[in-house]
What we know:
Layout: H1 2-14, E1 37-39, E2 48-53, E3 56-60, E4 69-74, E5 79-82, H2 91-98, E6 105-108, E7 127-130, H3 133-138, H4 144-148, E8 178-180, E9 185-189, E10 192-198, E11 207-211, E12 216-220, E13 226-230, H5 237-249, E14 256-259, E15 266-267, H6 269-282, E16 289-290, E17 297-300, E18 304-308
Parallel strand pairs: 5-6, 6-7, 7-8, 12-14, 13-18
Antiparallel strand pairs: 1-2, 2-3, 3-4, 4-5, 9-10, 10-11, 11-12, 14-15, 16-17, 17-18
Helix pairs in contact: 5-6
Amino acid sequence: MLKLYQFIRFVSVRSMFSSIKPAWCSKLPRPQYSLLDRVTIPSQQWFQVYRIHPNIFAIYEPYHWEETISYLVIGSKYSLLIDTGMGIGNIQQVIQSLIPSITSLKVINTHTHHDHIGDNWRFSGKLLGVHSDFTEHNAQGTIEEAQNELKPGMIWEKYLPKDFNPKNYRIHPFQITNYVKEDDRIDLGQGQELQVISTPGHSPDSISLLNEKQRVLFAGDVFYQGPILLYRPETNLQDYLISLEKLAKISTKFDLILPGHNIPNVESKLIIKAAKAMQEILNGKLIPKKTDDGKYDEYSFGEFSFVIDQSFLL
């Protein structure tokens, strides 16, 4: 009887989601992924893994509307996981399929918004992070922000992990072991270094990571193709502009931007376009359109747009 009750309860919980393919999934698969080598990870369907370089993997969550992307960089001495995703699927299991042992793994967040820290708790003792009040607050975990990601139409239920129970979904607390700051180098061995670049604005603790040897920039949510969301209370548009301009000035050092959402192969020249676009917005030279829900202003620039709380511009 208990097993029957548990089964009925599980079916009831799963019925929170529609089995119908959400409208936003109509754009999937994004055509840019056809240019990448997909890596098959057995016994899971939530993540898709793509090889960017022989030692760099994009770990993509296409079946949630956020389309969050985390990255694994494999070095001769250490491997580095950049962000841990939504926490809906178990990213640790994916990592264990890609590297022989996680004992030499380090983990760092590009920032601590909940969609990038979902599995931080699985990597106790391995976490690097920024020392800020915002980071410390988010490290306490959250139920509310996690549950907000489960609203109708946000998930394609067909691909949810079989053991996922939405009623238990939360961002677990975690603890940062070592702190990083501007210009620190994360040495993965044999000249494989990632330079920490402070890029606040989207969030107070946002960083980017420059791998100059392989000419890639891990940008988190500082820049990606698609609507860039700049309406949370912690957003600072002046800081954001400074960060875009900082990255634009060093854009000759990288060919690809590997961002935190949508697609993992963005041309570096777009960061220059983004910096100029944000400057024009802050100078009041552009007229936006309202988002479909009427809450925010959206400034569109082809490959990307900025979705902004109008009060930030007053």
